[in-house]
């Protein structure tokens, strides 16, 4: 096959836009790039400035360029008898067809392939498919991104990489792929068919390095063979070894492994505090800022303790990101540094693991809701199975629609066949569970800790000692899990997976099997299933009406982000129910009764099928249906609990957003205070709980956290140690905090014209002084929107890009990556950017905090907590609002200095930090940067002076 890899640069992406540059790389039959064609094209319209910015192509470049007619004379012969390839090929293909038409040629009728599809399928774990990023990842030269010839050449090299990857795959995988696309009359189908024929002609033996099972190639072997780390050692390697001696051995090994390893005072303090807490059976609150090396600070004592005492230590993180970092970076380092073998296992929530039985079932039955996208996802996963050892969805880049696909093949306790499953010995979830069982240290996350409590401690292996990292989130996660949170789609997904229409869904699948089974009872059973359909349709209609009416209770609000769940919020008070509540309760009762009926009949049917002596291979289906019925029962009870509005210790509310209306409805019922439960489940039960984070203290005191987490009793009984570690950074040298003391103030979440224009001007001048590299944190999305357009306009003249959360598409990670990839840019973010964003080094020089991050006082949970404090005669503002805001402020400040080489500026535009009686709590809680306040006009000269002094 010969491939022509095509790329156009154009004046925009409308049909009226014109081509300004052509790049074409020809890949010959031997898979060499035999020719690269390039040419500018003279457009009939001017090139917009943003295209010149993006591509670097100017009016001068194209003024003497050939016309489109002349270029096509060269291009058309190169395209004959080739397969057309492009990165996001539809764009280039449309321009090609229009150019052929304009210049009097026949349209292109050959095959068309998209490297985006190839990357998704053959490199399922790539985090991005953006051409420049992929080229960098693959080490492919790509000198001039967004110039057609450079793009075409980079795309051709990436395409060849995909073909190489395909060659390495076992025959069985290529057969599966060809089979998957066979029903589709598509060019991808044609391509895989051709590749399969070629591979079959070569007739090679199956390559080693794979496990072949049930027509799949896997990386996972029987997990039952996994043994504890020291099963062959007779003696405990730590017998008669003190923690200090153990640490000496570790340090020696770290020094040989890492030539630039240096001991850090704060890390040594942390090591001794954690090991002391373990040894004395005490709890510990320990604040450790960025750069302490806190993961090693708790992992080493955890390993020492678990191996010496032969008891498991549990480590819990808030984010999956940190869990991954421990798995990818810290554990491998410690495996080499610790002088004896140990096991650290990562164990996540069950829904993160693929259920191989469901996946096999789904692709064998071609059970695809939207075939075009889902076939690509299935292909991606077939290749991934030959690569993954964990079956963990974090390894997969599933794209937007892939999440729905994953839901149908994720592992679930209610639909697990356990030992009777043909996949049991290969099962990723049971493997992870077994690994956690034989591990010394288990790394899980806060969510799983609470799911385990709700499941009666059936999920996690038993543990007496627990380390909670990112502990400032513990209370919030506890509330979510010990309470109730349900979305409109929670119910809809369960209903449609049981029955979407007479052909799709698990009931129709079962009916089809019964029909073909030839069992004498099948007629009777089919009519039971037919009788369930109308009830399920009714339930869906009533649920739609209920969601609609619930949504209409909410007051209109316009100050939140599109897609931001904070758009509409309504708290529901048990003693003051809305007057329409009786109508809602009636609808809920209809749902309750109807679902009860469906569950009863379906469970009886399933029981009969299980007892039926003829097994027609229903097992797998019956298990899945049983699981979905359990989900329905749970949802039915949750809805009833919510509609009753009875519990005085629970705060009830609903949320939704204006774009998706009732489809975005979420209902919440969360305990007002979780401290009693935390005390019961953790601090009274466990011997030692270590809580750490960069932000646990407020004004150098831990009292706020002690109250929130239910640690007061432990403190009174002298079972709680606390420690605040010194920062390893020299903040006085590395960070300057500036407050413009005459800055206008603002009421509420929206700024007046004077405030906005002053802010935009000041941000633009500061960004110019710092050459972009600036993160601006807002507390309201509405204000971010007010600033975005005028700031973008001002800075585009100065060559600085503005990226706005919610304004530019992409997740937080994607926006952060774009910000890091561009030399001069300003990133505007709201709530989720205040923490967890890691932008080390040169990419970030200045941080602007527009308002102090107080939570909106009218949020139902904040409101309920405040009322509770008032009843106790305490000041809710000082006891709750200020500490919460200080912790968030410290998180925001922590974005700036991420290493001992970083230097940077923080500008706080909120003058309350100087003028109010509570402002000092914010300033005192910071780790000692240089602080100055001055009139606004002196600010930028001072910033420039400080930055220049650092450079010299």
From TrEMBL:
It comes from Paenibacillus faecis. InterPro entries: ATP-dep_Helicase_C, DEAD/DEAH_box_helicase_dom, DinG, DinG/Rad3-like, DnaQ, Helic_SF1/SF2_ATP-bd_DinG/Rad3, Helicase_ATP-bd, Helicase_C-like. The lineage of its organism: Bacteria, Bacillati, Bacillota, Bacilli, Bacillales. The keyword ATP-binding applies. GO terms for molecular function: 3'-5' exonuclease activity; 5'-3' DNA helicase activity; ATP binding; ATP hydrolysis activity; DNA binding; DNA-directed DNA polymerase activity. This is 3'-5' exonuclease DinG. A motif (DEAH box) lies at residues 469-472. It holds the Pfam family DEAD. Its EC number is 3.1.-.-. Gene3D superfamilies: P-loop containing nucleotide triphosphate hydrolases, Ribonuclease H-like superfamily/Ribonuclease H. Its cofactor is [4Fe-4S] cluster.
């Amino acid at each position: 096959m010969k491939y022509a890899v095509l790329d156009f640069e154009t004046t925009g992406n409308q049909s009226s836009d014109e081509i300004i540059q052509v790049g074409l790389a020809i890949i010959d039959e031997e898979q060499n790039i035999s020719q690269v064609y390039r040419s500018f094209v003279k457009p009939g319209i001017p090139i917009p400035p943003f295209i010149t910015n993006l591509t670097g192509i100017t009016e001068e470049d194209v003024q003497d360029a050939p016309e489109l007619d002349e270029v096509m004379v060269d291009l058309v012969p190169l395209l004959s008898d080739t397969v057309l390839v492009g990165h996001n090929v539809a764009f280039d293909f449309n321009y090609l067809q229009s150019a052929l038409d304009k210049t009097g040629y026949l349209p292109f009728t050959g095959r068309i392939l998209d490297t985006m599809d190839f990357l998704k399928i053959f490199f399922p774990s790539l985090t991005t498919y953006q051409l420049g990023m992929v080229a960098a990842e693959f080490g492919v030269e790509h000198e001039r991104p967004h110039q057609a010839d450079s793009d075409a050449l980079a795309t051709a090299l990436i395409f060849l990489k995909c073909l190489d990857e395909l060659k390495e795959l076992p025959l069985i995988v290529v057969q599966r792929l060809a089979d998957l696309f066979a029903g589709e009359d598509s060019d991808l189908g044609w391509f895989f068919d051709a590749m399969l024929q070629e591979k079959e002609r070569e007739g090679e033996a199956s390559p080693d390095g794979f496990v072949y099972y049930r027509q799949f190639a896997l990386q996972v072997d029987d997990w039952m063979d996994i043994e504890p780390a020291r099963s062959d050692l007779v003696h405990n390697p730590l017998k008669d070894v003190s923690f200090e001696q153990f640490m000496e051995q570790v340090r020696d090994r770290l020094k040989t492994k890492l030539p630039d390893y240096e001991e850090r005072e704060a890390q040594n303090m942390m090591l001794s505090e954690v090991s002391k807490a373990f040894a004395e059976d005490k709890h510990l609150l320990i604040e450790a800022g960025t750069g302490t090396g806190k993961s090693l600070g708790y992992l080493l004592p955890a390993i020492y303790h678990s191996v010496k005492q032969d008891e498991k230590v549990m480590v819990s993180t808030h984010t999956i990101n940190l869990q991954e970092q421990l798995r990818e970076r810290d554990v491998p380092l410690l495996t080499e540094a610790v002088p004896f073998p140990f096991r650290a296992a990562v164990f996540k929530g069950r829904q993160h693991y693929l259920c191989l039985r469901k996946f096999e079932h789904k692709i064998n039955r071609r059970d695809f809701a939207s075939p075009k996208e889902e076939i690509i996802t299935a292909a991606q996963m077939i290749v991934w199975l030959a690569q993954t050892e964990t079956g963990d969805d974090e390894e997969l880049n599933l794209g937007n629609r892939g999440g729905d696909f994953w839901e149908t093949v994720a592992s679930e306790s209610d639909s697990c066949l356990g030992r009777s499953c043909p996949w049991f010995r290969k099962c990723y979830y049971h493997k992870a569970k077994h690994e956690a069982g034989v591990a010394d240290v288990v790394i899980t996350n806060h969510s799983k800790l609470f799911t385990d409590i709700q499941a009666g401690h059936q999920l996690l292996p038993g543990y007496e000692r627990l380390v909670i990292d990112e502990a400032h989130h513990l209370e919030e996660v506890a509330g979510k899990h010990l309470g109730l949170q349900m979305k409109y789609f929670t119910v809809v997904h369960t209903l449609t997976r049981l029955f979407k229409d007479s052909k799709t869904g698990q009931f129709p699948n079962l009916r089809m099997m019964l029909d073909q089974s030839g069992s004498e009872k099948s007629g009777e059973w089919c009519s039971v299933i037919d009788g369930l359909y109308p009830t399920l349709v009714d339930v869906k209609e009533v649920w739609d009406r209920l969601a609609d009416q619930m949504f209409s209770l909410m007051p209109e609000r316009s100050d939140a982000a599109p897609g931001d769940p904070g758009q509409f919020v309504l708290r529901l008070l048990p003693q003051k129910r809305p007057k329409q509540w009786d109508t809602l309760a009636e609808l809920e009762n209809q749902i309750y009764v109807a679902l009860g009926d469906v569950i009863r009949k379906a469970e009886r049917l399933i029981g009969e099928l299980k007892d039926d002596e003829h097994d027609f291979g229903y097992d797998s289906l019956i298990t899945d249906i049983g699981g979905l019925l359990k989900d329905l029962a749970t949802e039915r009870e949750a809805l009833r609990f919510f509609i009753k509005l009875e519990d005085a210790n629970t705060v009830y509310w609903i949320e939704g957003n204006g774009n998706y209306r009732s489809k975005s409805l979420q209902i919440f019922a969360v305990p007002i205070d979780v401290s009693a439960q935390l005390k019961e489940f953790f601090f009274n039960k466990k011997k030692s709980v270590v809580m750490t984070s960069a932000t646990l203290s407020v004004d150098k005191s831990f009292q706020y956290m002690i109250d929130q987490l239910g640690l007061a009793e432990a403190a009174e009984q002298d079972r709680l140690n606390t420690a605040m570690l010194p920062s390893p950074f020299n903040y006085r040298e590395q960070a300057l905090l500036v407050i413009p003391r005459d800055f206008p103030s603002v009421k509420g979440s929206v700024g007046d014209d004077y405030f906005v224009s002053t802010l935009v001007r000041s941000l633009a001048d500061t960004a110019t002084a710092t050459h972009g590299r600036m993160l601006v944190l807002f507390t309201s999305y509405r204000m971010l929107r007010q600033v975005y357009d005028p700031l973008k306009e001002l800075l585009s003249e100065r060559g600085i890009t503005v990226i706005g959360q919610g304004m530019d598409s992409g997740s937080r990670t994607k926006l952060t990556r774009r910000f890091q990839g561009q030399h001069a840019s300003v990133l505007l973010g709201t709530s989720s950017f205040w923490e967890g964003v890691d932008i080390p080094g040169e990419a970030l020089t200045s941080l602007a905090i527009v308002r102090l991050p107080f939570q909106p006082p009218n949020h139902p949970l904040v409101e309920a907590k405040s009322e509770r404090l008032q009843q106790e005669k305490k000041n809710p503002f000082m006891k709750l609002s200020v500490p919460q805001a200080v912790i968030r402020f410290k998180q925001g400040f922590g974005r700036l200095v991420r290493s001992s080489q970083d230097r940077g500026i923080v500008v706080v535009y909120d003058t309350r930090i100087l003028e109010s009686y509570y402002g000092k709590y914010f300033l005192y809680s910071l780790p000692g940067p240089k602080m100055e306040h001055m009139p606004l006009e002196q600010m930028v000269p001072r910033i420039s002076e400080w930055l220049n002094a650092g450079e010299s």
